[in-house]
Amino acid sequence: MVRVISVDEHRENVTKLLGTAPVRELPLVDCAGLILAEDVLAGVSLPPFDNSAMDGYAVRAADLAGAPVELPVTGDIPAGLVDVPPLEPGTTQRIMTGAPMPPGADAVVMVEKTDGGVARVRILEAVPVDNHVRHVGEDVREGTVALPAGTRLGPAQLGLASAVGKDRLRVHAPLRVIVASTGTELVVPPEPLRYGQIYESNAVMLAAAIRALGCEVEIVRSVADDVTAFRAAIEPKLRDADLLVTSGGVSAGAYEVVKDALADSGVEFTKVAMQPGGPQGCGRWHGVPVVTLPGNPVSVLVSFEAFLRPALLTALGHTGVHRLRVRAKLTEAMTSPSGRRQFRRGFYTHKEGQVTGLVGPRGGAGSHLLAAFTQSNCLIVLPEDVTAVAEGDEVDVLLIC
Ligand SMILES: Nc1nc2c(c(=O)[nH]1)N[C@H]1C(S)=C(S)[C@@H](COP(=O)(O)OP(=O)(O)OC[C@H]3O[C@@H](n4cnc5c(N)ncnc54)[C@H](O)[C@@H]3O)O[C@H]1N2
Ligand code: MOO
Predict the structure, then answer these.
(1) Contacts of residue 120, Cβ cutoff 8 Å, sequence gap at least 6
(2) Does ligand 1 have an atom closer than 6 angstroms to the CB of 50?
(3) Which ligand is nearest to the CA of 249?
(4) Which of 46, 200, 223, 227 has the most beta carbons within 10 angstroms of its beta carbon?
(5) Atom of ligand 1 nearest to the CA of 367
(6) How far apart are CA 108 and CA 60, in angstroms?
């Protein structure tokens, strides 16, 4: 007999199975989308020195008290100048954006507020101390934590890491995932279809979903329902894999290739109390974690949301692994099977000022209705003990985009 387990128990099993991705030191450009495994300490302050925010003239603000005034220009300070002479009282130096302030100067007058003179300059208005000066450490102080462990490394975070002097970071390495779809009926586009065949879609969906989390994905599309062919197609790839995800071949039919190939090899097949996505399995094959998903395309995506996404995010070091859950009023009645958690595809809208949004189902409960999934932005979750909900009832909604 196949064991029946809850959605939460299977999620915990898959999360435990995947564990935590190894920590690696990678060049900054290869860290995009990954999670920082340790704090980044600032090797320098930002800015590293007082500098000008404008092209103009470095001055002592007190010298402009009687503006308009004319002052001698004693030199130029381009960005990158490392030996900056001090500013004598009653003089100015031309200064460019990002260039270091000369010792003794306490303000910058932008060039537009002057006659732009090179030997002498006429300054039209007085300015306060600190005018257009960017001070050392006002963004980040040397020695402090610039980025804490657990940070997701997007463009701004990688820019900051570089700005404080890092060229490599210790991150949770991307997992290498093999995605395999099984089914003798599957044909890969653009090959022509014969009656009884369908175009393969699960491997494409899973690869896209898993890649979007920051994993490396290799796909093996349309393995025939034959145990020998399945083993021959997958086994050689396991050596370099952190996870195998399969679709199809796990229910109660006569040709369940994944079940037949893996049931005696360390993978447990169960029925999860949910709809869609009932037939599930997880375990290890040759030591590599394996998660087996049912073949119906909507079941694949719902299973990804319920199990793989949170488990992969946890493995990659993320802390927020769950989708945003909100309450919404149903725009039409729905039914749900007793004892199973139903995940229906829906469209959620929320008007400004409204406390509770509205949600309506897209498509029926059938797990083959992929087009309806493309018109959805959420999953409507009906708990195990609910068999019917009426128009106007409040339900839980998981926002998936
Ligand atoms: N007697 C029973 N029959 C079924 C049960 C059951 O409990 N008892 N469960 C049903 C449920 S629920 C699901 S879900 C499916 C799961 O079956 P499998 O995982 O064995 O999947 P397949 O039979 O291989 O495929 C199901 C369905 O999906 C299509 N498919 C499969 N792979 C792909 C792909 N890569 N791209 C596009 N479409 C795919 C396949 O052609 C089938 O139509 O079992 C029910 N039956
Ligand atoms: O439980 Mo199945 O995954 O409905 O189609």
Answers:
(1) 70, 71, 72, 73
(2) no
(3) 1
(4) 223
(5) 14
(6) 8
In this structure, the residue with its CA closest to atom 8 of ligand 1 is 252
On the question of a cis peptide bond just before residue 148, with omega within 30 degrees of 0, the verdict is no
* Fold classification of 51-134 (topology level): Molybdopterin biosynthesis moeA protein; domain 3 (2.170.190)
ipTM above 0.90, yes or no: yes
From CA 279, how far away is CA 249, in angstroms rounded? 10
- Closest ligand to C-alpha of residue 251 is 1
Atom 16 of ligand 1, residue of closest alpha carbon = 294
Distance CA 241, CA 218 (A): 9
- Compute, in angstroms, the gap from residue 247 CA to the centroid of ligand 1: 9
For residue 302, the SS3 value is helix
pLDDT digits (tens, 9 = 90+) for 15-42: 999 999 999 999 999 999 999 999 999 9
Q: Token digits for 333?
A: 């009645």
In angstroms, the CA 82 to CA 9 distance is: 62
Q: In CATH, which of 3.40.50.300, 3.90.105.10, 3.30.750.24, 3.40.630.10 is domain 24-44+150-172?
A: 3.90.105.10
Cα–chain center distance at 381: 24
Domain range annotation of the chain: 3-21+174-315, 24-44+150-172, 51-134, 325-399
Per-residue model confidence as pLDDT tens digits over 72-107:
999 999 999 999 999 999 999 999 999 999 999 999
Written as six digits, the tokens of 88 are 């004598």
